[in-house]
TrEMBL record:
Protein name: NodB homology domain-containing protein
SUPFAM superfamilies: Glycoside hydrolase/deacetylase
UniProt feature, compositional bias: Basic and acidic residues: 44-58
PROSITE patterns registered for this protein in UniProt: NODB, PROKAR_LIPOPROTEIN
Record region (Disordered): 44-63
GO terms for MF: hydrolase activity, acting on carbon-nitrogen (but not peptide) bonds
């Protein structure tokens, strides 16, 4: 009899511990479920947030690209750009351009705009575009800080507006945007609606003779043409460049190129930093 009680008690104990274990397991699994659902909720929230962020980003970029034209989609177009004017050579350049029914863009120096206001007006009257090239053309001054670079362009913008009533956002920084125009400079220009233009054909007209620069430019245009890239040609307002410009424009006419001016509607062509940019004063 005693033995039977013992077995019964033992049986009850086993049952009870089984129940407890079940309960314990249930508790754990509920906790796991709860924590899983929290994680799910968190993930969902995170996902929604990422989606919203992505959406905002997409909207911003699609807005930018939607209204800006990619110049490489244009066939047989070249963009002639002249830096460092206006000066006495500008008049000759304007005459040649008119003769060949060519449009161009002039990136002007602020002090020279004040010195030759009539030339600035002539450029506009003959249906060319004006961009800004700063005030000092001195790398140590222009690239000293984000603000100094911006200020030079703002000063040029204001002078052009005062002289002609025309507002421009087109800029080319002295010596081009590589290497001193780091991302923070570019961002500040973008915040101020400026459009930075570099070039993909360097005429080297400041170092080569007249015929040499023309040959070099033609050579580069032919290569870009094969790759369906629209040429943006860097030239300067000099007497030598003006003198040999008819040879270049004859080639362009004969090869059915249209010479157009840069506009606000075009997506600017810029050298990209790709780790090639550094602050002017970074070594100090
Ligand atoms: Zn220059």
């Amino acid at each position: 009899m005693k033995k039977h009680y013992q077995i019964l008690i033992l049986f009850c104990l086993i049952l009870m511990s089984g129940c407890q274990q079940n309960h314990y397991e249930k508790e754990i699994s509920e906790e796991t479920l709860l924590s899983q659902s929290i994680t799910l909720d968190e993930n969902k929230e995170k996902e929604e947030l990422t989606h919203t962020e992505e959406k905002i980003e997409n909207e911003a970029t699609s807005e930018d690209t939607e209204e800006l034209i990619d110049i490489d989609t244009e066939d047989n177009v070249v963009y002639l750009t002249f830096d460092d004017g206006p000066n006495l050579a500008t008049s000759t350049i304007l005459e040649v351009l008119q003769e060949y029914d060519a449009e161009a863009t002039f990136f002007l120096m602020e002090p020279l705009m004040r010195e030759y206001p009539q030339l600035v007006q002539n450029i506009l009257d003959e249906n060319h575009a004006i961009g800004l090239h700063g005030v000092t053309h001195n790398k140590d001054k222009f690239y000293e800080s984000e603000q100094s670079a911006l200020n030079e362009m703002l000063q040029g913008q204001e002078t052009l507006k005062d002289l002609t009533g025309v507002h421009t956002n087109l800029i080319r920084t002295p010596y081009g945007s590589i290497p001193y125009l780091t991302e923070s400079y570019r961002e500040l220009f973008q915040e101020n609606n400026f459009k930075i233009w570099d070039w993909n054909v360097d005429s080297s007209d400041w170092s080569l003779t007249g015929q040499q620069y023309v040959d070099s430019v033609i050579n580069q245009i032919e290569k870009l043409d094969q790759a369906n890239i629209t040429p943006i040609i860097l030239l300067h307002d000099t007497a030598e460049t003006a003198e040999h410009l008819p040879t270049l424009l004859t080639y362009l006419k004969n090869n059915h190129f249209t010479m157009k001016k840069l506009t606000d509607q075009l997506k600017p062509y810029q050298f990209s930093c790709h780790e090639r940019c550094y602050r002017l004063n970074s070594g100090q």
